[in-house]
Amino acid sequence: MNSIYKGKYTEIFVDLDRSLIFDTWTEASKDMEDAEFIQFTDIWTDIVIKFKIQYALTDTLNLRFTLTPDVQEIASQKIKKAVESGLKKQAMIAPQTEDLFTKVALDQTVEEIQISTGFLVTQIFPSPEEAEKWLLS
Predict the structure, then answer these.
(1) Residue 82 pLDDT > 60, yes or no?
(2) Distance (Å, rounded) from C-alpha 62 to C-alpha 38?
């Protein structure tokens, strides 16, 4: 995998042989503003479209940014463009948490993406190995 973008809060890698994009978050994301998350979503979507990516793997283990419903909706609309360009599946790596707020926020984000795109198949996994196995199967 080759790193294609590195910012304060995230890094994006692509594996063109497997048509895969992988993004990972840093704990600094706790200081992220809504506009910065939306900007990241633009960058991510542009990469998916440019390289005709079919599979997305997102590691949210260190993601500390809280997505509001408005940001979820905006991000979902942007991700819809990626789906229209050929993105088929997304696997998310998320901590197994007892924190109800965190779990509900993540579940709502996945649901919003699935509803708005009308097609993208998304699953949440506790480990990168499980996520990648499902994603590429």
Answers:
(1) yes
(2) 18
